[in-house]
Amino acid sequence: MAAVIHHIAPLGELRAGCREGTYTPARFAEDGFVHCSETPETVLAVARDYFAEVTEVLVVVRIDPSRLRS
Q1: Residues ≥6 apart with Cβ < 8 Å to 62
Q2: Gap between the Cα atoms of 5 and 31, Å rounded
Q3: Taking Cα atoms as reference points, which of 8, 17, 14 lies closest to residue 60?
Q4: Residues 6+ apart with CB under 8 A from 12
């Protein structure tokens, strides 16, 4: 397992998804999982492929997999 995984999101979506110490992305109900990447290079590829048209600030969340509850 990766030491750290990465999740990219528009800042507003990240803020809206944070409630009571947990984060749920806007597409979670539709997708059923949180999109993450293992490497910074993969994050850049995702940003280019899926967020190229987003004008809002994008943030990358570094996640320690050992702290995940599900």
Answers
A1: 4, 5, 6
A2: 18
A3: 8
A4: 56
Do the Cβ atoms of 6 and 63 come closer than 8 Å?
A: yes
Three-class secondary structure assignment of 4-62: CEEEEEEHHHHHHHEECCEECCCCHHHHCCCCCECCHHHHHHHHHHHCCCCCCCEEEEE
pLDDT per residue, tens digit, the chain (70 aa), is 668 999 999 999 999 999 888 889 988 999 999 999 998 889 999 999 999 999 999 999 999 998 887 7
Distance CA 29, CA 44 (A): 25
